[in-house]
């Protein structure tokens, strides 16, 4: 595999991990639960079940987002650290 292709794959996986980590950890597990807690509180439909589930999602958000980013960074490092071909 050529050097430029290796670098491109490493950058691609690194960017994909960052975007997925932010989307899943930041949006799906942090922003949306905070929004639904706010909406439930404002409309008076907030129950204990909804409150507990959304608080758990908010606390787990950074761990899940960071875990996704780490997995994709490990995959990207496999392309960064490939030995050079002598042929």
List the helices and strands and how they pair.
Blueprint: H1 3-43, H2 48-80
Helix pairs in contact: 1-2
Q: Would you mind describing this structure in some detail?
A:
- The longest helix has 41 residues, at 3-43.
- Helices cover 85% and strands 0% of the residues.
- It is mostly helical.
- The protein is rod-shaped.
- It is built from two helices and no strands.
Helix content: over 70%
Q: What gross morphology would you assign? A: rod-shaped
DSSP helical segment count: 2
Low-confidence regions: none
* Overall strand count: 0
Task: Give me the secondary-structure category.
Answer: mainly alpha
String of helices and strands: HH
Strand portion: under 5%
Question: Measured on Cα atoms, how large is the radius of gyration?
Answer: 19 Å
The N- and C-terminal alpha carbons lie at a distance of 11 Å
Q: Largest sheet, described in full?
A: none
